[in-house]
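ARCHIVE CARD
CATEGORY: sequence design from structure
SOURCE FIELD: tokenized fold
FIELD CONTENT:
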């Protein structure tokens, strides 16, 4: 489990295919940046842009993870070198500064707007239609591993556009600063909303 509070910005420095087959996954070498690795062991979980990955080895600068082709097909930002948001898995002693996050990407959103509004930035993302029922005013959403609060929701036949206000600190310490219209982002819906939907729809 995670909180959606980014601990550091890392960098995918190399991508190595795990085989010659079309469905083969890849091995990512990640420079951990400011993420402390002293307490990280092999098999531990680290979220990369909101996607939970398992550490398979450590390096002088960071760590290595293996990503399946299935994961690559359902996420954005893990198939090329570049910056990624990093967060280590929770311990029972950690503060829950964001909200409960599983590290499982539910779908890809598309950035429609990313522009200054006063001292902050307004981010508008169009989510797939199947995620629309989980998005609510003042509810929680994870975008590329960052726990955020929804300020506005607008449904349409093609999907659901939601608006978020990003304070300068969030922009500065995450990779969200690089977003632009058309960019694909990883989305994870609120865990509580998922269970509420299941309880209301269960017919047994």
């Amino acid at each position: 489990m995670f909180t959606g509070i980014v601990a550091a910005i890392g960098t995918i420095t190399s991508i190595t295919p795990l085989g010659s087959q079309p469905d083969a996954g890849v091995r990512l070498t990640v420079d951990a940046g400011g993420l402390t690795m002293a307490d990280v062991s092999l098999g531990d979980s680290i979220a990369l842009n909101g996607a939970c990955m398992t550490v398979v080895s450590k390096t002088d600068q960071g760590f290595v993870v293996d990503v399946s082709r299935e994961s690559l097909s359902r996420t954005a930002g893990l198939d090329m070198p570049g910056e990624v948001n990093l967060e280590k898995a929770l311990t029972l002693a950690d503060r829950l500064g964001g909200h409960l996050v599983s590290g499982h990407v539910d779908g890809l959103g598309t950035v429609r707007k990313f522009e200054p509004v006063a001292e902050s930035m307004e981010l508008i993302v169009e989510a797939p239609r199947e995620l629309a029922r989980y998005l609510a005013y003042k509810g929680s959403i994870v975008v590329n591993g960052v726990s955020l609060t929804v300020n506005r929701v607008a449904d349409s036949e093609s999907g659901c556009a939601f608006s978020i206000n990003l304070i300068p600190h969030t922009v500065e310490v995450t990779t969200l600063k690089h977003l632009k219209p058309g960019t694909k982002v990883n989305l994870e819906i609120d865990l509580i909303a998922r269970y509420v939907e299941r309880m209301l729809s269960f017919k047994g």
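CARD ANNOTATION: The mean pLDDT is 96. The first helix runs from residue 69 to 73.
SHELF: design records, drawer C
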